[in-house]
């Protein structure tokens, strides 16, 4: 069972919202492969199924106005921050109503309104941006913190170490969260990193590094909340390794044959959604019917998002040459 | 002779060369166990083992720097950058190190290194994953830039590049991996810096490389139907640059258009156009024109992206302006 700390004292409404968010993320992602095969979407499509507890746990620990920044497996992250699934789906369809107006696509979702500062396609490339966002928040005394998400593979890039050092040096309010799903495409962590306990990688910079069960939304929530509280009080950056798993291949074109059926099964059994559902039923007196209602409602939202995306117009041809410069 | 894909042709070249010379190693992200993210290195890990086919972390600067050092230390590395977009992460290693080491130490040290990287747009991969950077790399002295179009070119040029004492950037096109063509079995060496006439014609020279060679061949067919006989000159690379072949062809056709997939501004087409005007202005019947991509980052939306990159129809339209 979940090593849940009841000391969290979360309201039942918040717990149910976490459950609802994870269900929405999952159902959104699981609707995509079919749409992709129908040609509604193009390019790469990196799905988040299995990793929901990380994004949702982290997001619930944040306040409105805090920054989040991520890589290309970010549909779930931006939706967890509160983006309307409609405009995310429309972006995947490349439509004019999409959150990046059809110009960004699956890998490049951003919301200025939600302070979701973008999804980026160059592994590790956005980590220093998080340092800069943290610096701006600190300098302007806004009280904001930055949550920066990236994969295990990104921790092998030089820029990871540059960002870690600078974050510690300038003592910025940044929480680096490594979503360790065990693989960078087909290469396992063991074959790519000399240190496989990735949370140790911040120790050279004297930045606290911790590991958390990334399949347990409450555990993620708790650790990120602590890190955020520290950062907001001027305690500087921290680094969290969330151990998780992607239930699908690296991207839509990857069958993921390099992972054994046994390994997949072990992780499927740790699926964060039924895990929280069971906890809610056993410890919080939530009726199964209530969880079913949540599922039905979120499926409905995904269906509405698809409908919205379908019905939306393509960007006009003259949009090709707009947004290149701010000043004409 | 067999009809095989570009992917198979490159794989053959790698296999044959790894077999020929034990000093050759292949390194890159997912090149070994996973056999390459485009499956170009299929069978190589099984055949040559992990000492020679090395799976690296996602660390492009590290990959290129390590390959550069290994080359200086007597090996003949072939570094694969998963796509050329990530070569930008390793730009310092490529430009400040790989390209400069032979010259700045007065010719004492050598870097016999091949950097393979596929690129190109048209697949809705968005702003960060759709680059064609051959024009950019052409700017740097000290590193060869090779860009094959036909499968046989890919095989013959790669084998030559691997045997070269100089560093070579070997830029493949993601959309060409599945394209088939006749490729001679066994040994095939095509010298670097020799352009190839892919279609002979009398009225205009279309100058291209990589995927745009196919675009030009398509345009040439359309133009033929309208009575214009276009020559398609495949540069097969930008450094060394076969200007002699360009001048020879333009001398016959008296009209030239460069066709490149990347942005117009600062592209290689401008360089070629300037050289044509410098060397054979007198033979021209019309100004040299350039066809290239719109000066905008690649949009995700399919229609917008297609609008941004050159097509045969764009080439045809511009050719007609010359008559
Ligand atoms: C600089 C760079 N190199 C290579 C790639 C190709 N690539 C895309 S995702 C990926 C694996 C990344 O793995 P990880 O950081 O663990 O994230 P995950 O996909 O597992 O979420 C690679 C190698 C890239 N996008 N950027
Ligand atoms: Mg990973």
CATH domain fold name of chain A = Rossmann fold
Largest interface: A-B, 41 and 36 residues
Query: What is the fold named in CATH at topology level of the largest domain in chain B?
Result: Rossmann fold
Number of helices of chain A: 11
* Level-2 CATH architecture of chain A: 3-Layer(aba) Sandwich
Q: Rounded to an integer, what's the Rg of chain A over CA atoms?
A: 19 Å
Mean pLDDT of chain A: 96
Query: Termini of chain A, distance in Å?
Result: 58 Å
User: Architecture of the largest domain in chain B in CATH?
Assistant: 3-Layer(aba) Sandwich
Instruction: Tell me the number of helical segments of chain B per DSSP (H or I, 4 or more residues long).
Output: 12
Question: Structural class per helix/strand content of chain B?
Answer: alpha/beta
Helix content of chain A: 40-55%
Shape of chain B: globular
How many structural domains in the coordinates of chain B? 2
How many E-type strands of chain A?
Answer: 8
Name the assembly state: heterodimer
CATH superfamily assignment of the largest domain in chain B? Answer: Thiamin diphosphate (ThDP)-binding fold, Pyr/PP domains
Describe the sheet with the most strands of chain A: 6 strands, parallel
Question: Cα distance, first to last residue of chain B?
Answer: 40 Å
Molecular structure report:
The complex is a heterodimer of chains A (328) and B (323). Chain A is an alpha/beta fold. Chain A has eleven helices and eight strands. Chain A has a single domain, classed as Rossmann fold (3-Layer(aba) Sandwich). Chain A is 43% helix and 11% strand. Chain A has a six-stranded parallel beta sheet with strand order 2-1-3-4-8-7. In chain A, helix 1 packs antiparallel against helix 10 and helix 4 crosses helix 11. Chain A is globular, with a radius of gyration of 19 Å. Chain A starts with 11 loop residues before the first helix and ends in a 17-residue tail after the last helix. In chain A, 55% of the residues are buried. Chain B is of the alpha/beta class and 323 residues long. Chain B has two domains: 182 residues, Rossmann fold (3-Layer(aba) Sandwich); 125 residues, Rossmann fold, CATH 3.40.50. In chain B, the strands form three sheets. Chain B has a seven-stranded mixed beta sheet, sandwiched between helices. A five-stranded mixed beta sheet of chain B has the order 9-11-10-13-14, sandwiched between helices. In chain B, strands 1-8 form a two-stranded antiparallel ribbon. Classes of the chains: A alpha/beta (328), B alpha/beta (323). At the A-B interface, loops of A face helix 3 and helix 11 of B. The structure holds thiamine diphosphate and magnesium ion (MG).
